[in-house]
Structure of ABC transporter permease:
Amino acid sequence: MEWWHVFKDWFLSLGGKYNVNPFIFGAIYLGAIPFFFASLYWTVRNIKNKKSVFIPILLTGFFFISAYLYLIVVGKNIPVWVYVFIGIMVVYGVYSAIGKVKSKLKSK
């Protein structure tokens, strides 16, 4: 399991290098998951009930990118490829969320 220690040491060293606490990033990332799904459910429910979806969609987006927002706001000297990766993840997340909403609407 030597590779695990090498990976862990490398990963934790990134925090100091980029001024980001990996534990806070991970906590935000994992902690936002239930809120993301709850707001996604709220969005689907509001669409079905023909209510406004503005707030649920706004919250769904916020919870999806919350960990990345932390990285962007707190991080220093973040490489450009990380911002490109975040952009790709956001585009994929939007595409995936739209697909989930459409499938939920069709199934009920």
